[in-house]
Specification:
Elements lengths: L10 E9 L7 E10 L4 E5 L6 H8 L7 E6 L2 E2 L5 H6 L1 E5 L10 H5 L1 H5 L4 H14 L16 H13 L5 E5 L7 H18 L2 E6 L2 H7 L2 E6 L2 E6 L1 H5 L4 H10 L8
Parallel strand pairs: 3-8, 3-9, 6-7, 7-8
Antiparallel strand pairs: 1-2, 1-4, 4-5, 9-10
Helix pairs in contact: 5-6
């Protein structure tokens, strides 16, 4: 028998609004309708204050909608046990958020340990993930303060992948890095996604990054969804905001085909 849930989007927003301080507060997100398909990289693109990070946080219930429904794996987020929901979602942020008093190995193994994996399985998973994100196994015994920015970001990605979650949320994960390191990690990200086929929601304000990494781009402005297009469609778009982005960045950009 076919599981019909596998044909449904991994994530759905149905008429979602979010207001600061409840129903009478300032509206940061309004009437958002959006689907994230399984295995795609949906990039949320927009300026500061457009609602990108708010949208991301609604998926793993760091925020709850003021109205409407956010549905993850066919179930509204408010119906999920919040701990179970978050353990099936990897979360990578710009500041990485590694525990400074944990070694790299302990940082990566946090969720598997919580899930009561045996110690030998955790060690094997740490080694596997370090190789996957392009780090030498000897780094496992180091502390975050002993790593470069690019190394810390790679460890952050490894930690998010540790328990093999089906969904990854990435909030400007490469934004604080120098241009060369950022380009390296973008290339590695594309390679990882081709191998792993996770469902990824990726926040950025950088058009070049969006065009390079996205399966589809969801352009946001002032708390509303403007358009959802493939990178190729975005480059051909006549939408005024899309046109403003293209004018600012130029057209000599690579796209994810």
């Amino acid at each position: 028998m076919n599981d019909s849930s596998n044909t449904r989007p991994a994530i759905e927003f149905r008429h979602v609004a979010y207001k600061v301080n409840g129903y009478a507060g300032r509206e940061l997100l309004r009437d958002l309708n959006l689907e994230v398909q399984r295995g795609e990289t949906l990039v949320l693109l927009g300026r500061s204050g457009s609602g990108k990070t708010t949208t991301l946080k609604l998926i793993n219930r760091l925020l709850s909608p003021s109205s409407g429904q956010v549905i993850v794996e066919t179930r509204p987020t408010l119906d999920w046990d919040v701990i179970r929901l978050r353990r099936m979602i990897g979360y990578v942020i710009q500041e990485v958020g590694l525990f400074p008093h944990f070694t790299v190995a302990r940082n990566i193994g946090v969720v598997p340990k919580i899930e009561s994996w045996p110690a030998d399985r955790i060690r094997a998973r740490v080694e596997e993930l370090l190789a996957l994100v392009g780090l030498d196994s000897e780094i496992a015994s180091r502390y975050p303060r002993e790593l470069s920015g690019g190394q810390r970001q790679r460890v952050g990605v490894a930690r998010a992948l540790a328990a093999d979650p089906p969904i990854l949320l990435m909030d400007e994960p490469f934004g604080a890095l120098d241009l060369i390191t950022r380009a390296e990690l973008q290339r590695e990200f594309l390679g990882l996604q081709k191998r792993l086929r996770k469902t990824i929601v990726f926040v950025t304000h950088d058009l070049r990054e969006a065009l390079l990494l996205a399966t589809r781009i969801a352009l946001m402005d002032a708390g509303r969804l403007v358009t959802v297009q493939t990178p190729k469609e975005f480059l051909n778009s006549t939408d005024p905001l899309a046109a403003a982005y293209k004018e600012a960045y130029g057209t000599d950009v690579k796209i994810n085909c």
